[in-house]
Write a structure and sequence with these properties.
This protein is mainly α and about 170 residues long. It has six helices and two strands; from the N terminus they run E-H-E-H-H-H-H-H. It folds into two domains: about 80 residues, no CATH class; about 70 residues. Strand 1, helix 1 and strand 2 form a beta-alpha-beta unit. Helix 1 runs antiparallel to helix 2, helix 4 runs antiparallel to helix 5 and helix 5 packs across helix 6. The longest helix is centred in the middle third of the chain and has 39 residues. The protein is rod-shaped, with a radius of gyration of 29 Å.
């Protein structure tokens, strides 16, 4: 990118983060800008990439770029930990580790029922399987067991029963 620029050109960036996310890449970009005589000016710290820096400016550039890399690494770490935690809880509950069903959270993930309520739902499902009542009355009864404000839809209760069956409680 810098090779095609004319001499004494200034490139303005919104922040130093826009240039590079790692310290090594930022240093390489700074070296290339010096080599091709292109000045990089960041709006957050304008003197960060000057061509003839003082020792203090050099130190600030290295520390700032290292802090950016640390920040990026922490974001990646937290996201991966969150994803691993979500997969772990989903494996414990159901779905064999896939965190979503058809692009949304599973019923068990949303409602987080206790083991006692799951047993009650299983009993109600067994009664429904015997033909004592249909899906709509089952939905009403399951809503009361799970203490949901609005009555669950019959399809939601059917999916909930499938999830419980997969878990084999």
């Amino acid at each position: 990118m810098l090779k095609g620029c004319a001499d004494k050109v200034k490139i303005f960036l919104e922040s130093a983060r826009a240039l590079a996310r790692s310290q090594i890449a930022a240093e390489q970009a700074w070296q290339a800008s010096r080599k091709h005589n292109v000045e990089i000016v960041c709006s957050d710290i304008p003197d960060l990439f000057t061509h003839s820096p003082t020792p203090a400016q050099s130190f600030i550039r290295k520390v700032h770029c290292a802090a950016q890399e640390f920040n990026k690494d922490m974001v990646v770490y937290h996201l991966s930990q969150g994803l691993a935690n979500k997969v772990k809880t989903t494996k414990e509950i159901t779905q064999k580790g896939s965190p979503k069903v058809n692009g949304c959270k599973s019923v068990i993930q949303k409602l987080k029922p206790s083991q006692a309520s799951i047993k009650q739902v299983k009993k109600l499902k067994a009664q429904r399987d015997k033909g004592e009542f249909g899906w709509r009355p089952l939905a009403t009864k399951v809503s009361k067991v799970l203490r949901v404000k609005a009555c669950l839809a019959p399809e939601t209760v059917r999916r909930l029963c499938v999830e419980i069956k997969v878990k084999k409680l």
